[in-house]
Amino acid sequence: MKKLPWSFGLLLFIAILGCASLPVSPPGTKPVITHALINQEGGTYGSVLRIYLEANDPQGFMFRIATAVDQVGYGSYPTDWIYLKPQYQHQLIGYLQWNTFSVHASWMPEWTQMTIKVSIIDTNGNESNMVVFPFEFVSEALPETPLSPPFHQGNVPLLGYIGIDLFNPLEMEDDRDRRESIFP
Predict the structure, then answer these.
(1) Is 75 within the bounds of a domain?
(2) How much is the pLDDT for 22?
(3) N or C: which end of the chain has fewer CB within 10 A?
(4) How many domains does the chain have?
């Protein structure tokens, strides 16, 4: 029996994978975020933020959550994607968690302001309405926002972790000066 080359097996795998794609949402439909809440609008560096979402798509095509962050003094970070489990394709109530501590910043200046934008994308690439939250680093912990309906009943599941690592523009400047003094 003649053995097939490995490239044929790879092509066969890609063809099978392409046939098992997600169903495409109907044109003109998109998910809707009906309620959203952030647990605090300001906190110390390293604060754990929780963004609560309630959303639905009657057709059942919600696919992933997009989170984007704009930081004053730095700019925009790449979008973070959280893929939804199949049980959340029609309706979801849950929260995203973001630990603001970063491997790229040993500290953040007080009053560093950020804008956090969250939306949901369906299998056809249609984007839901966007919810926008301000956040500011302050020197003392601020009280958390009380949970309002539908999030106040407990047992709200974690949908995923936001994986955005912040940069401190002041530390970046220090690194640039240090590199320029070593490598003129």
Answers:
(1) yes
(2) 55
(3) N
(4) 1
Residue 55 lies in a domain: yes
d(CA 31, CA 120): 7
20-73: pLDDT as tens digits: 455 565 666 789 999 999 999 999 989 999 999 999 998 888 999 999 999 998
C-alpha 76/C-alpha 143 separation (Å) is 27
Dihedral of alpha carbons 105, 112, 121, 86, sign: positive
Q: What number of residues does the chain have?
A: 184
DSSP string, 88-148: GSSEEEEEEEEE--BTTBS---TT-EEEEEEEEEETT--B---EEEEEEE-SSPPPPPPP-
Q: Does some domain include residue 139?
A: yes
**Which phi and psi (to 5°) does residue 47 adopt?**
-55, 145
Question: What single-letter amino acid sits at 156?
Answer: V
Q: Read off the pTM.
A: 0.78
Structure tokens given for 127: 């984007």
The answer to whether residue 3 is domain-embedded is no
How many H-runs (helices) and E-runs (strands) does the chain carry?
2, 10
pLDDT at 82 over 90: yes
Amino acid in the structure at residue 108:
M
Distance CA 51, CA 58 (A): 23
Supply the range of the domain harboring residue 132: 29-182
Which phi and psi (to 5°) does residue 63 adopt?
Answer: -120, -45
